[in-house]
């Protein structure tokens, strides 16, 4: 469990001009982020455009990240889909790739009831031998996991914890109080400091792709009791987040993480492509991030 308690990049999925996945650039992105202190990778999540990738592309991404990392840090594969069978297929492939854990959103679209959602997780858990992270992101899935069913799942010995991408920090604090042995992972970059105080033991974030040093600094300052310094660094993170949102957070983060110019960096449709004005503003933002990192 402690291996999953770190600052993880919700790593982007680089693509070429024809929308094909660029695994070579992905390897470069992973290596660059490792050099900057990233402590783990979460593949094929929201930032990785999971639901816009085919099953084979998702397997290829996980394989390449695991190969590039070579055991230096944990790799988690998000394998969630609307189908139990497809999710199991992806989970088994990720296990074969050597991931530290698999994670999945609840099944979406059909408004499955709580019992069906719980059984979906149990079916996947029974199908693999690696730890499982629940993934609570209700603004995307329409399903809020904190509740009696998720509490039962968190008692399962194979469930390592939960990625909590929700502004409900009261729910996070209650989960931390009731499940002190589980890894509770913040998913909103703009509330990392608050989530740490509420009991989070890790973070998985889109903007960790481009400013991992600042997340590590927040954690270190909290650990040393420097809350004023941690607030200053969180404010810098939030300034970057606000700028990314103005240009499309996933498109903007992918562009800056890949640093490969206009040929790569666009997310797949229906995400709108970045404009030249977007790129100019983001290039300027990259300079501000460097200053934040250097200022300490």
Descriptive keywords:
single chain; 296 residues; alpha/beta; 8-stranded parallel β-barrel; 8 strands; globular
In helices, the fraction of residues equals: 40-55%
Mean pLDDT comes to 95
Compute the number of strand runs: 8
Low-confidence stretches: none
Give the H and E element order.
Answer: EHEHEHEHEHHEHEHEHHHH
Structural class comes to alpha/beta
Helical stretch count? 12
Lateral arrangement of strands in the main beta sheet = 1-2-3-4-5-6-7-8
**Main beta sheet: strand number and arrangement?**
8 strands, parallel, barrel
What general outline do the C-alpha atoms trace? globular
**Rg to the nearest angstrom?**
18 Å
Assess the beta-strand content as a share of residues: 5-15%
Q: Termini separation (Å)?
A: 30 Å
Structure characterization notes:
The protein has 296 residues and is α/β, with parallel strands linked by helices. It is built from twelve helices and eight strands. The protein has an eight-stranded parallel barrel, surrounded by seven helices.
Helix/strand layout:
Elements: E1 7-9, H1 23-35, E2 40-43, H2 55-69, E3 75-78, H3 84-97, E4 101-104, H4 114-127, E5 132-136, H5 138-141, H6 148-154, E6 159-164, H7 169-178, E7 183-186, H8 192-198, E8 202-205, H9 212-223, H10 227-247, H11 249-258, H12 276-295
